[in-house]
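Researcher: Following up on the earlier apo prediction. This time include the ligand. It's nicotinamide-adenine-dinucleotide, with the SMILES given after the sequence.
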Amino acid sequence: MTRELIQRMGNETAPVIIGSGILSSIAQHIRRANGGKNPLKILIVLDEAVATTWASVVEQSLKNDAATGAEISQVSILATEPNKSAHSWSKVMDAAVRADLDRQGMIIAVGGGIVTDIAGFCAATYLRGIAWVAVPTTLLGMVDAAIGGKTGMNLPLAEALGEIHWGKNLAGAFWPPSAVVADTQALTTLSPRNFRAGLAECLKHSMLVDASIEPLLASALAIYTSSEPVDQWKMIDLIARSAAVKLDIVAADPPEANQRMLLNLGHTFAHAIESQFSSELLHGEAVALGLVAAAAASAASGRMTASGAASVRDRVAALGFQVKLPQSATVETLEKAAGFDKKRVEGSLTLILPKTGGGADIVRKADPELLRVGLRAIGAVDSV
Ligand SMILES: NC(=O)c1ccc[n+]([C@@H]2O[C@H](COP(=O)([O-])OP(=O)(O)OC[C@H]3O[C@@H](n4cnc5c(N)ncnc54)[C@H](O)[C@@H]3O)[C@@H](O)[C@H]2O)c1
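Model: Understood. Below is the ligand-bound prediction.
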């Protein structure tokens, strides 16, 4: 049970293999990703949450494959946003040095988006760049974070009352993995909340390009929140369709000069929301709120009807997401947080605004009032 897509970034191509039960034969994918040769040294960067499950399957698979013969080391990361930090980067770098990884060595990242982002950034920066393979173990990782070659980590922006506010992904590199191996079996240990979070990115892909994805979301959620056995073909289909949207957009614009910005639909809002509510909301949950806010801003700009924006809100709610901020926040605070957003180019704001009937516009130098309208739609209040 396998589907294979191709990631194209400039002249570089890499297979994206989506299947069920494929981690037990990962050695063959690693060899292929390494130009047909076995890497001599491998550092597995793993998410603590999958240490005894999927990372262990990967390790055993490599050890059982006599042809691999690689020296295998491991380093684990507790996957939290504050941990997607220079501290974790340094921990992985230390492990790479201790494992004596050379330029022919390889990093294999096993985990959700936090781990694939930081492990990929380590691969990009260790010895000025070594090969890596992504083994995403969350839905969000399979359809988004592990796709498209962006790697990175958060940087602290400011400390208030002993609490650090993080600037999302402020350090990073475009450094695509040599292969992405997504095993839907890994999703069987994911919490329903984290599974749902991945559906927000699938919905984004549906709104942007492929409306056939959306009908698959409710049934995927029903399967994961009930005790029904998971239909692996349905899961593979959902992941493949959603990943394909991102792969096509990335292939057309790898450096995010233009069209790739579409993938930021909902994200300018989401990053501002996350900077205030990082402990209350998962990334995917912030993206879901961001989609509602972006739709409201679109309606205010005439790109979407008011009923179209209301329909986006209702569809987001139907997937079980909150459509209001978890606590009160002022428009001003969130707007300021959006000001730290990397998508604000030369002091002006770029918003991705969805259109009735599908697709979205990249609106450069957007009127900041549209940002405020979106924030009010999800419950932010004006300061008195
Ligand atoms: N590079 C990109 O293009 C890109 C795109 C989208 C998101 N991201 C980043 O991805 C991150 C979010 O990724 P995520 O949603 O995968 O979250 P995550 O990495 O935080 O994982 C979610 C939770 O699930 C746990 N987990 C992971 N796999 C599991 C499994 N199979 N079974 C049980 N528990 C498991 C993790 O330990 C964590 O607690 C954010 O930091 C975001 O910025 C990057």
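Model: The chain has a mean pLDDT of 93.
Researcher: Noted. I'll compare it with the apo version next.
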